Amino acid sequence: MRKLPPLNALRAFESAARHLSFRLAAVELGVTPTAISHQIRLLEDICAQPLFFRRPRPLRLTEAGNMLFPVLRGGFDSFTAAFAALCETPHQILHVTTPNAFASRWLVPRLPLWQEAQPEIALEIIGTDRTLSLEGGEADVAIRYSRSMPDDCAGQELLRDTYFPVCRPHLLPAGKPLATPRDIYRLPRIHYDWMKIDPETPTWRHWWSKARALEPGLPHDAETCRLSFREEAHAIAAVLAGQGVAICSDVVLAPEFEAGEVVKAHELSLPGLGYYLLHRPDHPRKRVIALFAEWLRSVV
């Protein structure tokens, strides 16, 4: 007969060892950090030796902890994969997290094509600008927007965007791009905040810096905007309402470009970032994720 420690104690240790944090383990398992600490103390009493160095911080595994962790991690991964295989039904759900703008303006309009291609696999789209934890199971896959491929997940680049000053056609003579950056200065300009800490964000400030290399002597207050928003979605709404020109992504506004509802106000562009499809390397539903990745590539 097998003699094992309590499952809760093993789960608490595996999660804390993976995160190297009692707090993150508590979030993952839905308990308090104190409960995690008690479960690990229980396991240490059974082992008759410490599994973590708690001081000085940060939290580290002892030699015994390093021996135990990979065995438990492999065991829990095997349990997860086995149950996922047993529980797969004709109606599966893939949980996908993406930035809000990409979800509403690029992904959602294409979802009927997914439903036609894979009617037995439902998607739950989690549009949020917060980074959800794939390791913690908050989503199966993530479409993340960044300058380079994140190194903490498996994945692939889907597409990259480019930023242009865009507006409604009626704001431009004959609805065509303006000839010079100085002409842009005469239009009401719209700004929105970039939450990412990135010195190369495609903003008006960078656009005017690039424009001055082509046309010296542009007004010093060109960066000043009549309208400013915290959210990109609100700035886009203002552009679509004909209230001015904003620096926008050709991917996010692809439907409006195709319909002729917005046009480039000037051909001078700024490089954007990449959209990356990411997942845990050991995810038990790699087959479904591969189907989703193949479909995304087909509709880019």
Note down, in words, how this protein is organized.
There is one protein chain. The protein has 3 domains: 81 residues, Winged helix-like DNA-binding domain superfamily/Winged helix DNA-binding domain (Arc Repressor Mutant, subunit A); 92 residues, 3-Layer(aba) Sandwich (D-Maltodextrin-Binding Protein, domain 2); 113 residues, Periplasmic binding protein-like II (D-Maltodextrin-Binding Protein, domain 2), CATH 3.40.190.10. The chain is 41% helix and 21% strand. The protein has 10 helices and 11 strands. The strands form 2 sheets. Strands 3, 4, 5, 6, 7, 8, 9, 10 and 11 form a 9-stranded mixed sheet that branches. Strands 1-2 form a two-stranded antiparallel ribbon.
Give keywords.
single chain; alpha/beta; Arc Repressor Mutant, subunit A; D-Maltodextrin-Binding Protein, domain 2; 3 domains; two-stranded antiparallel sheet; 41% helix
Summed up, the domain count is 3
Number of strands: 11
Task: Give the low-confidence spans.
Answer: none
Computed structural class:
alpha/beta
Give me the CATH superfamily of the largest domain.
Periplasmic binding protein-like II
Give a brief rundown of this model.
With 300 residues, the protein is an alpha/beta fold. The chain has ten helices and eleven strands.
